[in-house]
Amino acid sequence: MTSQVDETSNLAHPRARQPFNRASKAAMARGRSNSYLAEEHELDDLGASNFDGPHHVSLPPRRRSNSGRLPKYDDEDSGKEGLNYSKNGKRSRGHDDAASSLWQLPPADFRNFSLLCILYLLQGIPVGLAMGSVPFLLKSKLSYGQVGLFSLASYPYSMKLLWSPIVDAIYSPTIGRRKSWIIPIQTVSSIMLLWLGSHVEALLENAESRLGFITVLFFTLVFLCATQDIAVDGWALTLLSHANLSYASTAQTIGLNTGYFLSFTVFLAFNSAEFANKYFRAVPQDSGLLSMSAYLKFWGWAYLLMTIALFMGKTEEKTRDTRMGKNGIFDVYTAMWKIVKLPNVQLFILIHLVAKFGFQANDAVTNLKLLEKGLSKEDLALTVLIDFPFEIIFGYYAAKWSVGNRPLRPWLYAFVGRLGSALLAQFLVYYFPKNGAGPFYLLLVILVHVLGSFMSTVQFVSINAFHTQIADPAIGGTYMTTLNTVSNLGGQWPRVLVLFAVDFFTKATCELDAATATPDQVETFIPFSCAKQAGKQRCTNVGGVCHMKVDGYYIANILCVLIGGALFFSFIRRKVEYLQMLDLSKWRVEK
Q1: Which of 55-64, 321-330, 376-385, 577-586 has the lowest mean pLDDT?
Q2: I want to staple 249 with a disulfide (CB 3.0 to 4.6 A). Which of 57, 189, 325, 503 is the partner?
Q3: Please, where are the H alpha helices in 141-210?
Q4: Which residues, other chains included, contact 137 with Cβ-Cβ below 8 Å and sequence gap of 6+?
Q5: What are the contacts of 430-436 at 24+ separation with CB within 8 A?
């Protein structure tokens, strides 16, 4: 699958076709024989995909056989439609019978579309918590570096390429290829959510001492969601008819975004006592309308009920036993290795790994810093809520711009714009009103947030359009997933470093308030650092005042922007222009 929650809907991964042999090449030269088209049409859905936030969309790649060729699958829907070829020789599936709108889907497709939306929504719930709400709740108790450690819980979505071939190759034909994974994963997830619902309040209350355990718990939840995502992606290819297969990405976008939105924006708003007192209560209280415990328990039961309904009410169509075993899985990894050995791919991977460094302080810290300055959680939730429809609109136009011979040109322009957006966000934090955020300041927050989202969305769609263009059709799914995984890692690895840098550069000292301190306290008190959360808490306990002398956020953000700008003008821009002008043969793996 590929979210800001590392960030509009990703482009669907094209399904790869089998390598051409000489006979098939000759057949293509003569107009592509019917037998070749029939062979090419066989559906092969590996299920390996990636995640760049809740809006990421992908379709799984094909896997390779022991003979070194990509094997043919006999899946539920193989042989339903042929393939069309455009004037430039590229392959596309015919959509003459495709529904023109969601409401015109055939009844069977509409039911399966609804099922996909629910499955993707369930995946978005833990992801929204791990990548959205929990870091904000932890910030009041932990330092930025410690929050950075918790961000490791989001890594499984950037690493699932490593185990996706196993999900596709091992299953029970009796239960069904995809249900063999979805049912047990959702069962375990429901148990974990119910257990967390009974213990999460105590864990968050002692977050500093239990940080490792909290991180492991949410890492496991995200790992289960990422694994289920592989299975659901593969099932999406066979649940819908070929003519309406494009609606699988629509289901993914709706489901994941809705789940993430519920767990992040909606939960933070209803968990806020200020929001509840302002809009729902006549008598103010100290707690919000919805606790983390109640929210987790609700979704734990929802997971369990959905799992039972799926097990009893949905029969997966029988398929021939196409389990590959160890050798087939090994062939998929061999194909990945051949891809990353290509010189141009290695250069592209290097660009992916360093290109997002310039935006990390803004992406990871700015919202947390606004909350620290005094912006309420409900105002921040409102900002994200308003930004959501803009992401969809930006994604549509970004896709239109990212066509032609230079699909990365919008990505280059948005790179500079994103650096500028990071500087604007820093000024916004610096000039936070001393009397609190009023309507005008909140409007500025929304505008800067939408601007940053626009630049991020343009980059996201443009880079995926380029991935689609250069992917070798013989191993297209594996090729696309490899590039998307590296792209996500490029946004993950610098984040922990940046969060620790914020703490490192921050200089704050706890001092007594001269107006309230007694002479004995003044004589015995020794000032100490309160840059980290533990020091702030200690300062509060002794009745001191924490004076911020140097805010490490400003230094870290400036350094990120400077490093990002230097990389862009000295290396990234020149190499990207070079890569997008290469002939497609330079991106191909030898057969």
Answers
A1: 55-64
A2: 57
A3: 144-150, 156-159, 164-169, 179-205
A4: 204, 271, 292
A5: 430/554, 432/370, 432/373, 432/374, 432/375, 436/374
Q: Residue 294: CA atoms inside 13 Å, Cβ hemisphere, count?
A: 8
Do residues 450 and 425 make contact, with C-beta atoms less than 8 angstroms apart? Answer: no
Are the C-beta atoms of 444 and 11 separated by less than 8 Å?
no
How far apart are the C-alpha atoms of 286 and 86, rounded to whole Å?
A: 63
Angle between helices 247-261 and 107-128 (to 10 degrees): 30
Please give the structure tokens belonging to residue 320.
């021939």
Which residues on neighbouring strands pair with residue 375, listed in sequence order? Answer: none
469: nearest Cα among 393, 568, 391, 582: 582
195's tokens: 């257990």
* Ordered DSSP codes for 373-428: HT--HHHHHHHHHHHHHHHHHHHHHHHHHS-SS-TTHHHHHHHHHHHHHHHHHHHH
SS3 at position 91: strand
**CA atoms within 13 A of residue 248's CA, in its CB half-sphere:** 26
Rounded distance between C-alpha atoms, residue 219 and residue 152, angstroms: 7
pLDDT tens digit sequence for 163-188: 877 777 778 888 887 889 999 999 99
Alpha helices in 41-159 (DSSP H): 107-128, 134-139, 144-150, 156-159
Cα gap 157→229, rounded to integer Å: 9
Q: Model pTM? A: 0.62
- 569 Cβ partners below 8 Å, 6+ apart? none
Token pair in block for residue 380: 């921040």
Tokens of 491: 């946004």
Question: What does 504-548 look like in DSSP terms, one character per residue?
Answer: HH-EEEEEE-TTT--HHHHHH---EE-SSHHHHHHHHHTTEEEEE
Residue-wise burial string across 503-534, b where 16 or more C-beta atoms lie within 10 A, e elsewhere: bebbebbbebeeeebeeeeeeeeeeebbbbbe
**Taking all residues of the chain, what is their mean pLDDT, rounded to a whole number?**
76
Residue linked to tokens 């959702």: 186
Let me know how long the chain is: 591
- Tokens representing 441 are 């300041």
